[in-house]
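Example 3.
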Amino acid sequence: MAEPWEEENEGKVKKFMFINRKAPYGTIYALESLEVVLITAAFDQDVSLVFTDDGVFQIKKGQTTAGIGMKNFSPTYRALEGYDIEKLYVDKESLDARGLTAEDLIVDVEVMSRAQLADLMNEQDVVMSF
Amino acid sequence: MPIEVNGKSFETDEEGYLANLNDWVPEVATVMAKLENQPLTDAHWEVINFLREYYEEYQIAPAVRVLTKAIGKKLGPDKGNSKYLYELFPYGPGKQACKYAGLPKPTGCV
């Protein structure tokens, strides 16, 4: 049964892409992005994530944050599947530049060229960059 | 407003969620439930403990839809449905059970 506040926008699904460009700690961008991603998914929208530049470090395995007194929120990326967020894309150039491969990441991703990512971006209704 | 558990004071936020997750002991759930006249049966504890484990693994409080699905996967479809969970936690399994489990309010929960 639909709640009263759900009726107005019933069935309107938009394609949201969230582009993550920054290292996980040091700024609040990564954590804020993750929060918006979870909220967007809670509203049953079509969500995809891109990790590029230092953003690829957000999903790197083996993060230990005790030394900087921050919560290690990287395990939360593994919860995305439960939110039906399964479109995770990583920029190959950014991985290569940092000596990383998909094996170094805590979640299953699709590694793509910048040209492929640009095409995907074109298909979106909303693109947000963090 | 802080709550009293075993003579010890626990800090909570304005909605009654525990301020520090690591403070949690099972008696916190017992006291919070008593304040809301909510009896806690084994079935309630099963959900509370599930939430503790979920948080331990993923570092977030799940949205109610995600919780329902995850419980279904682990405990079977007769428990992984809204009806069952809302009967246990009439204020909403997301909000109420997370609070008793010492978790923050689920993200995306208004």
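DSSP finds five helices and two strands in chain B. Helices of chain B lie at 26-35, 42-58, 64-75, 82-88, 93-100.
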